[in-house]
Specification:
Elements lengths: L4 E5 L6 H11 L6 E6 L4 H12 L2 E8 L2 E7 L2
Length: 75
């Protein structure tokens, strides 16, 4: 997957990973991919809701050990 930007939100709790992702997406071009790495387990459902509400596509989500990875495509 060709990700244009990566955001490290490890150690941050809701709503900070979402807020940082929103800011990063605002600086990106339509169609570009953003990968967000988080440690907050709630980020799985938070990013699903964020994608539904904003129209940005949630391309992938995965869990690796204690990290949660979200890939969003800018609308």
């Amino acid at each position: 997957m060709d990700v244009q930007r990566e955001l490290d939100t490890r150690g941050l709790n809701c709503p900070l990973p979402i807020l940082k992702a929103k800011k990063a997406l605002a600086e990106m071009l339509s169609g570009e991919l953003l990968r967000v790495v988080a440690t907050d387990p709630g980020s799985m459902r938070d990013f699903q809701a964020f994608a539904r509400q904003t129209g940005n596509e949630l391309v992938a989500q995965e869990t690796r050990a204690d990290e949660f990875i979200h890939v969003l495509r800018r609308r």
